[in-house]
Recover the amino acids of this structure.
């Protein structure tokens, strides 16, 4: 969801995420923003949960109607592509993420949540009352 060419590892990306995301589940977005703020305030190498950050980014991207590429998801999770790719493979093997060919770029892959992961995240992050109207 985050354009890796504009990615700043020292920012929370809150300006990017808060533009055009009014229809996202607030709890998922808040979880993501809180994790980024935490990484800004503490040494980020003491906290590590790339699989969760990857799932959150794909979920937020899908709710915003945007494609999640491997590179942008790794940037959003603040992990190198090599580390992110290993975690993406684990998430694919566990049935939570699907890796799809990018029709616009033969050398790139897009990521999407499986229905199992989507249902679990929808349960974890139910829409707020304001989002239902």
């Amino acid at each position: 969801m985050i354009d890796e060419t504009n990615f700043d590892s020292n920012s929370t990306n809150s300006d990017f995420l808060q533009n055009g995301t009014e229809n996202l589940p607030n709890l998922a977005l808040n979880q993501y923003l809180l994790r980024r703020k935490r990484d800004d305030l503490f040494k980020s190498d003491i906290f590590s949960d790339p699989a969760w950050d990857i799932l959150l980014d794909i979920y937020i991207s899908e709710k915003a109607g945007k494609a999640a590429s491997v590179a942008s998801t790794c940037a959003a999770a603040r992990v190198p592509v090599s580390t992110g790719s290993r975690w993406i493979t684990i998430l694919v093997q566990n049935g939570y993420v699907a890796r799809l060919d990018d029709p616009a770029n033969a050398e790139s892959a897009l990521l999407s949540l499986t229905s199992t992961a989507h249902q679990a995240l929808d349960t974890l992050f139910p829409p707020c009352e304001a989002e239902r109207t």
